[in-house]
Design goal:
- The structure holds two protein chains of two kinds.
- Chain A is built from five helices and three strands.
- Chain A has helices at about 5-10, 65-75, 80-85, 90-95, 105-125; strands at about 25-35, 40-45, 55-60.
- Chain A has a three-stranded antiparallel beta sheet.
- In chain A, α1 crosses α2 and α2 (about 65-75) crosses α5.
- Chain A starts with a helix and ends in an 18-residue tail after the last helix.
- The longest helix of chain B is centred in the C-terminal third of the chain and has 22 residues, at about 280-300.
- In chain B, the strands form three sheets. In chain B, strands 2-8-7-6-5-3-4 form a seven-stranded mixed beta sheet, with helices on both faces. A four-stranded antiparallel beta sheet of chain B has the order 9-10-13-12.
- Chain B is α/β, with parallel strands linked by helices.
- Chain B is globular, with a radius of gyration of 23 Å.
- The chains are: A alpha+beta, B alpha/beta.
Chain lengths: ~140, ~425
């Protein structure tokens, strides 16, 4: 399969790879996809007191297009408010990366990852104690 | 008469050693034509261009002589009689002719066939077509190591079973089926035995008598011969009948019409002879390279899994899954190596390899598998470079992989409820 230059660039030099403390109340974590389907994306956002996404990190198990889609959205969400981030559409991602039809699902997954991360952050803010949970009992894919 | 221009052949392998191209480790997909084979083919494209079916002049006689010599060479390679060899366009056509041809001919006797889930698509798709025509096909499971369970195989035979088709050496995982034992069972039950020996010829000794094969598919381009030529062995004693699938002219004793491609046939004959001659030395060298590759990868990379039995296997194939990395991204990372992936992501489908699935491998491991096909021209330097690349790229992708991170943190990925999408 021929990849666009943008996909290859993100794949070879992925932006913002890494992990944040998912128990930090200022961090929203979205993990979408499934290993059996060949892609799992984890997008994490750090939100400041003004509701602005200050930083974003990702790790992705998946094809080149999945890695590029998640790398791209870490760049896009930075500096945006949560509401603004929620408006990012998969079609914009697919267009930017020139994804072929067979790879559109990668962009859908990236959009889902943003939504999941924002929801996770909002859930933490609404009600949950600010204190860090005592221990990691289980990790659950939010989707 | 004008003398033809003599073409100077550089009989090194200049087209193989090319620093601008990836290291070729996909010898189960295809092989380059051996220079010694090419040399024998060339005159039949130019000077000796006659039609083997032309009986009235020397142009035809020369072509016919060459075709018959090649027929003898292919027959010798599998211990058959030359009259049992039918030229086809390749092994896919040979398998179509064998299964459809025999099923149609013997349909009065029964309408049931047996094959394996891990067969090549040429067999599986032909069986699907026969099902559409009203035949019944049993697709047998294989064991976790890719080998057949002989008891289950025998149990699948019914009174109306007419043909069983088994892949001698699997193209994806290189395992060698117990073909002799299968042949014995089938002969006892009077079921015709078709063997797909495409990946076996030149790698292990193939003997149609020892394995009691009734039909056998062979290919030119997997044995350092040209593409576009194959052969079907059809037993004469006891005689096996196949109904022609291609009509027009009655070539090949009516089993397969069409003008014979003399140069291709000469190439396949020469390649078959060379394959048998160099089989032992090739296999010895290739086994050393395979062992070196396996050891290198296992020393450098954790969480790797070999697919398929290692004892009953040709050394030319190594199939390894790399856990926690995805297959297509792995292939993309390995662009300096030409290998094949168990992930079909590169095509339109997202289905992982059906062969690895049939071994009971998880989708993830099936997706992240790499088939290394080692061949006649593979060098130690290429193997060493491959080990380095694999180690570096798998590390890089695992750094990117949330699954690897979770595994490192001791989280069992099976305990997680993943959302399907």
């Amino acid at each position: 399969m021929a990849y666009s230059e943008k996909v290859i660039d993100h794949y070879e030099n992925p932006r913002n790879v890494g992990a944040m403390d998912k128990d930090d109340s200022g961090v929203g974590t979205g993990m979408v996809g499934a290993p059996a389907c060949g892609d799992v994306m984890r997008l994490q956002i750090r939100v400041n007191g003004h509701g602005i996404i200050e930083d974003a990190k990702f790790k992705t198990y998946g094809c080149g297009s999945a890695i590029a889609s998640s790398s791209l959205v870490t760049e896009w969400v930075k500096g945006k408010t949560l509401d603004e981030a929620m408006t990012i559409k998969n079609s914009q991602i697919a267009e930017e990366l020139e994804l072929p039809p067979v790879k559109i699902h990668c962009s859908v997954l990236a959009e889902d990852a943003i939504k999941a991360a924002v929801e996770d952050y909002r859930k933490k803010q609404g009600g949950a104690p600010v204190a860090v949970q005592p221990e990691v009992a289980s990790v659950q894919a939010t989707h | 008469m004008n003398q033809p221009k003599i073409i100077e052949l550089d009989v090194g392998q200049p087209w193989l050693v090319n620093p601008d191209r990836p290291i070729y480790l996909d010898y189960q997909a295809t092989t380059p034509v051996d220079p010694l084979v090419l040399e024998q083919m060339l005159p039949f494209l130019t000077h000796d261009f006659g039609n083997a079916a032309s009986r009235s002049h020397p142009y035809g006689w020369t072509a016919e002589k060459a075709v018959e010599k090649a027929r003898q060479q292919v027959a010798d390679a599998i211990h058959a009689d030359p009259r049992e060899i039918v030229w086809t366009s390749g092994a896919t056509e040979a398998t179509n002719l064998a299964l459809k041809g025999a099923a149609h001919f013997y349909s009065g006797k029964g309408r049931h066939l047996i094959t394996l889930r891990t067969e090549h698509k040429a067999t599986l798709d032909t069986c699907r077509q026969l099902e559409r025509e009203g035949f019944e096909v049993t697709y047998l499971e294989v064991q976790e190591d890719g080998l057949i369970d002989l008891q289950a195989f025998e149990a699948a035979i019914r009174p109306d079973t007419i043909i069983a088709s088994v892949l001698y050496v699997n193209n994806e995982i290189g395992v060698v089926q117990p073909i002799e034992a299968i042949g014995k069972i089938l002969r006892a039950h009077k079921v015709l035995f078709h063997v797909d020996a495409v990946q076996a010829l030149g790698k292990i000794s193939v003997d149609v008598e020892a394995i009691q094969a009734d039909m056998m598919s062979l290919s030119g381009h997997k044995i350092y011969g040209p593409k576009g030529i194959g052969a079907l062995y059809v037993r004469r004693k006891p005689r096996v009948r196949v109904e022609a699938q291609v009509h027009g002219g009655g070539h090949e004793r009516g089993m397969r019409s069409g003008t014979l491609p003399t140069h291709q046939i000469v190439g396949m004959g020469a390649a078959a002879e060379l394959a048998v001659q160099s089989m032992e030395s090739d296999a010895r060298r290739i086994r050393q390279l395979r062992d070196r590759l396996l050891k290198g990868i296992q020393e450098r990379v954790e969480e790797t899994y070999i697919n398929g039995n290692m004892q009953h296997r040709v050394p030319h194939n190594l199939n390894i899954s790399f856990a926690f990395v995805e297959g297509e991204s792995l292939i993309m990372a390995l662009k300096e190596i030409a290998v094949s992936s168990g992930s079909a992501c590169t095509s339109a489908s997202l289905e992982p390899s059906y062969v690895l699935r049939a071994l009971g491998k998880s989708d993830e491991l099936a997706h992240s598998s790499i088939r290394f096909g080692i061949g006649r021209y593979t060098t130690e330097e290429e193997i060493d470079a491959t080990i380095e690349l694999i180690a570096a790229k798998v590390d890089k992708l695992r750094e990117l992989s949330p699954l690897w991170e979770m595994h490192q943190d001791g989280i069992d990925l099976n305990s997680i409820r993943w959302a399907a999408h």
